[in-house]
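Kindly inspect this today.
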Amino acid sequence: MSKEPTIIIEAGAEKIWDVLVGDFVNVHKWMASIDASTAMAGTAIPGAPVVGRNAHIPLNDGIMADKIVGIDKASWTLHLDTDLKNIKGFNPMLGFKNSVYIKPLGDNRCEVTWSRSPKVVWYLSFMYPMLKKALYPGFVRSLEELKHIVETGTPHPRKVAAFEKEAVAAAAE
C-alpha cells in the first residue's frame, strides 16, 4: 500500500487551512482519537500559529506531541514531526513524520493528502513497512473527520460518540 491517504473535501483551501492550521491546537474538537490538546511553549517558525501541540490520546493515555517543522500557505502544505510520549505497553514507534498537502481542484473543492513516515526504534527498523501500513487507517479516519468538520461545521459521528463516552466516564467519577 504505497498510496498515501487522500480525500476530496467540498470546500476551498482557505477553509481547510483554517481548521488544520488556524485552529491547530484545537484538534481535539474534531479528531475522535484526541480528547484534549494544549499548545507547546516556545517560538513558532515563521507562518505557524504555534510551535506545536500536545494532544492527549485516551486509548493508551499517551501524548502525541506534534511540532510544526514546515509550513507554506502558498503551496498549502503543513509538515509535522510527531513524538509519541508516555504510551502504555509495547510501542515500536517513537513517533512519525507527517505532511498535509491541500490541492485545490476548483473554488470549493480540494484533494487533501496526509502522508506518514514512522520513526521506528532502531533495532526494530525491519518493522518500518508494516508500521507505515498500520498507520494508514488512522490517517484515513483523520481525513474523514477533517472532511466532516470542514463541510458541515460539526464533528464527525465518531467524535460525537467519543464526546459521549467521555461524558459518561466523567459522570462515573
